[in-house]
Specification:
CATH architecture of chain B: Sandwich
Distance between the termini of chain B: 34 Å
Shape of chain B: elongated
Number of domains of chain B: 1
Number of helices of chain B: 0
Shape of chain A: globular
CATH class of chain A: Mainly Beta
CATH superfamily of chain A: SoxY domain
Helix content of chain B: under 10%
Number of domains of chain A: 1
Structural class of chain B: mainly beta
Radius of gyration of chain A: 16 Å
Structural class of chain A: alpha+beta
Number of strands of chain B: 7
Oligomer: heterodimer
CATH class of chain B: Mainly Beta
CATH superfamily of chain B: Immunoglobulins
Strand content of chain A: 35-45%
Number of strands of chain A: 9
Distance between the termini of chain A: 26 Å
């Protein structure tokens, strides 16, 4: 059986880059002490949301009303979708943004534990209409919230 | 050499509202140029924001963050005159650090 999403994955994912990425990532982490964080390769290379959640160590996060996602209901240009996430959960440590139907769903992870409020805003690319998930880690537990964003023109290629 | 970032930090109560605009192509590795050749993946992987030298936000990004990325955050316990510093590193090893000072509430 031909998986209908295969076409998009091939078109958008640029899977050939994955091999070289490993090498480059290793170099970057070694050569940059100023930015100490490593790069969650397994998470960012994963092609399905469940895989991405696993790579984050989130498993099945609990849906929470204390996470507020601000994003447009309809985004005309998938290349620039503004997303802001507020987590009112105490001791928020980490906020991740996942677009469920993107070829690589995990987009960004922010460690916010020390000194910044549970808030981030940024702009993301989305290939098609999809749920945007915010996954929040607080006190070692994972919570999530979602919002659907309709995309008029995809922003993958 | 990478272009300078634009950083605005404004005090709101005891929070500093920080807005960062980075100039970076953020190529996904799937776009083709006018000759039909694929443009190689080139994107920022790590972003770190410090407040008076202490890391307050440590981000990891994929190529799915938009071109010329915007990042907004709120730093707790900030005062006017505090230093906000932002560093990014991309997958080719390019990096850049820029600083800004927290402006008093207007």
């Amino acid at each position: 059986m031909i998986d209908p999403s295969r076409r998009t994955i091939l078109k958008c994912a640029g899977a050939f880059g994955a091999l070289t990425m490993g090498l480059v990532t290793g170099l970057v982490v070694k050569s940059s002490n100023a930015v100490a964080a490593q790069w969650n390769k397994a998470g960012f290379e994963s092609k399905a949301m469940a895989e991405a959640l696993k790579a984050l160590g989130a498993g099945t996060p609990v849906e929470s009303k204390d996470i507020v996602i601000t994003a447009p209901d309809i985004a005309e240009n998938g290349a620039v979708v503004p997303v802001a996430i507020v987590s009112k959960i105490p001791n928020t440590q980490q906020i991740s943004i996942i677009a469920e139907k993107n070829p690589r769903p995990l987009m960004a992870t922010f460690d916010v534990s020390s000194g910044s409020e549970g808030y981030v805003s940024t702009r993301i690319k989305m290939g098609e209409t999809s749920n945007v998930w915010a996954v929040v880690k607080a006190d070692g537990n994972f919570f999530a919230a979602k919002k659907e964003v309709k995309i008029t023109v995809g922003g993958c290629g | 050499m990478a272009e300078p970032m634009k950083i605005r930090a404004t005090l709101q109560g005891d929070l500093a509202d920080v807005r960062i605009l980075i100039l970076h192509p953020m190529e996904t590795g799937t776009r083709k140029d006018s000759k039909g050749d694929i443009v190689p993946r080139h994107f920022i992987q790590n972003v770190a924001v410090t407040h008076n030298g202490k890391t307050v936000l440590d981000g990891q990004w994929s190529q799915a963050v938009s071109r010329n990325p915007f990042l907004g955050l709120r730093v707790k316990g900030a005062k006017a005159g505090d230093k906000i510093s932002v560093t990014w590193v991309d997958n080719k090893g390019d990096k850049r650090t820029d600083e800004a000072v927290v402006a008093p509430a207007s």
